[in-house]
Amino acid sequence: MKHLRLAVLLSGSGRTLENLFTEIQAGSLDAEVVVVGGSRADAYGLERARNHGVPTFVVESRAFKNNAAGFSRAIFEQLGRYEYDLLLLAGFMCLITIPPELEGRAMNIHPALIPSFCGKGYYGHYVHEAVLRYGCKVSGCTVHFVDNVYDHGPIIVQKAVAVEDVDTADSLAARVFEKELEAYPEAVRLFGEGRLRIEGRRVKVLGQP
Ligand code: GAR
């Protein structure tokens, strides 16, 4: 496995980022986080990054209302100061336009089984509320490569959980998050092992029995 230099973007509490640190420290992910960017200065994930001695930057999405292109430019201007192999969106609640050189080198995790309950407005607890409202019996999480449409690029890993009659949005979110903790490192490991081949919308995992 290649040692990976990771750049991470987030908007919230940063449990997804913390899980990467945990995996790295446990030796189950041969990687380092070289920079963490936030879309709001009060995102707790930025503090987690600083606690691990990782440099951070902030591009306030609020300052770019109706200017998605300007927001993306500002993000990639900051990221451009670092060298990284893979960009990970980790609870990053904004649409960004991936530059061509990052195609196949940027991933996102979404707390539903894409293409259900994804796209604009579907994030965090809104996803789980919608799953319960619809009456789904199964939900889960998806790690996918990022393209320039919300929650849309080729799918790398999906993990499912059963929806129980007694579930609330919080209990379902917690069970899905347990799967997220496995799915994201798994996808990153496969990338580091050079085992992901994108063929159109399909991602082939090389070396699978
Ligand atoms: C995670 O559940 C992630 O899947 C979700 O936000 C949460 C971030 O938690 N992402 C989305 O909804 C993206 N559409 P965290 O800030 O504690 O890592």
In short:
With 209 residues, the chain is an alpha/beta fold.
Characterization of the model:
It is built from five helices and nine strands, in the order E-H-E-H-E-H-E-E-H-E-E-H-E-E. Helix 1 crosses helix 5 and helix 4 packs across helix 5 (169-192). By secondary structure, the chain is of the alpha/beta class. It is globular, with a radius of gyration of 16 Å. Helix content is 31%, strand content 24%. It starts with a strand and ends with a strand. The longest helix has 24 residues, at 169-192. The chain has two domains: 1-97, Formyl transferase, N-terminal domain (Rossmann fold); 108-209, Rossmann fold (3-Layer(aba) Sandwich), CATH 3.40.50. The protein has helices spanning 15-25, 44-51, 68-79, 125-134, 169-192, and strands at 4-10, 31-38, 56-58, 86-89, 106-110, 138-145, 155-162, 196-199, 202-205.
List the helices and strands and how they pair.
Blueprint (H helix, E strand, L loop, with lengths): L3 E7 L4 H11 L5 E8 L5 H8 L4 E3 L9 H12 L6 E4 L16 E5 L14 H10 L3 E8 L9 E8 L6 H24 L3 E4 L2 E4 L4
Parallel strand pairs: 1-2, 1-4, 2-3, 4-5
Antiparallel strand pairs: 5-6, 6-7, 8-9
Helix pairs in contact: 1-5, 4-5
The structure holds glycinamide ribonucleotide.
The site of glycinamide ribonucleotide has 17 residues, from helix 1, strand 5 and helix 5.
Q: If classified by CATH, what would the architecture of the largest domain be?
A: 3-Layer(aba) Sandwich
Beta content: 15-25%
Whole-number count of domains: 2
In DSSP terms, counting alpha (H) and pi (I) runs of 4 or more, how many helices? Answer: 5
Q: How are strands sequenced across the largest beta sheet?
A: 3-2-1-4-5-6-7
Name the CATH class of the largest domain. Answer: Alpha Beta
Q: What is the tally of beta strands?
A: 9
Oligomer: single chain
Query: What small-molecule ligands were found?
Result: glycinamide ribonucleotide
Remind me, CATH topology of the largest domain? Rossmann fold
**Ends: how far apart?**
19 Å
Instruction: Give the SSE order as H and E letters.
Output: EHEHEHEEHEEHEE
